[in-house]
């Protein structure tokens, strides 16, 4: 059944807004009727402009907070119990912010008035918000159970494990909402055991076409042990598609805690496309914009000086633009101060080295203190890059890296950056093998990505710049 996702999100937003409006209205009435009359006696509660402004701003605040926390993403498949606890937690923390920022300096007779006001607001916010969300998620769950709502699912695999996974899901007492459109094989054409239950749609290399053609929303990977060398290639093919990806775990995955309990009781590992929570991604982007804007303004005299020095150092353009590959394989043009002589790559792409005679004298100084990278803050400002992230490469070198290290594809999950953990721990790479060596550090960053680690990398980068330890 076709799902009207926009309508469902609109319902969540409408009910969340209603809960926020009710909570503020009750708080305002409570304070005017029970807290303030002894000092500010009034015959009728004044529902004036201040009241309506409070309604507007607190409601907008809650909708923004819910958006940043990701409450309006993946609305069709969520645990009701988890949603209840997440909603209560966000309501408590969000209410504390409102009280500390807007209400703590209001007049009260005793501190008890603060506690009572907070309790009234929190309770009247939690009850309708949790109730409305529980009703919506329960309605969704019942539609799934009644098979009125489902998710087109593609099975990757064709033999014993695929048969068992398909059988386990189909024989569940409560339906999981999976609607299998077919399966793709990993090996060349042989006798496929699962073919008696599902149609063969092609080989795994054709998944991009199959996902688009059958509007696949979830991919379940159930390949045999002998086929595990294909797993990385399968994951890489799925990176650029907006689908849920889950895989049957092995014993090691279970021991190290990668497997989470599913509501339908089948152990599966979910391969996450989004490696940062929504609020962290938003915080990272806001930080990128603010930091880039402020820094470009503060160092503008230095930028002008560098531009003049580049212009005087050798004939040619001041800025150097080159196509690089960004997040999800999207190309963009990186901007740097030109540190090499004009036409330095007239014989084709070349990596620089310590004794590279293509680098100008001033270019060598810029590289030592990484001054040539400063114009990239413009790339950050327009959203093509981030301040912290794996360094972007050219497609020419990506192809060479992928031949030896197919897992390079994973670093395209995030925006490329001006600095990275790889640049901090390894530095510039002069060969493809060095690029692959540096790749290890960038993969470690992705597996541990967080706003805190970004700040840590920035701290080390500043030390490197001040000490002149760039290439």
UniProtKB/TrEMBL annotation:
User: Which cellular compartments is it found in?
Assistant: Membrane
The record's principal subcellular location, in a coarse class, is: membrane
Q: Which residue spans traverse the membrane?
A: 9-30, 50-72, 84-103, 118-136, 286-311
Name of this protein: Sugar transferase
Question: Which terms in the GO cellular component ontology are assigned?
Answer: membrane
**Which family, according to the similarity comment?**
Belongs to the bacterial sugar transferase family.
Question: Do you know which InterPro entries this protein is assigned to?
Answer: Bact_transf (IPR003362), EPS_sugar_tfrase (IPR017475)
* Keywords assigned: Membrane, Transferase, Transmembrane, Transmembrane helix
Q: Name one GO molecular function term.
A: phosphotransferase activity, for other substituted phosphate groups
Organism encoding this protein: Phaeocystidibacter marisrubri
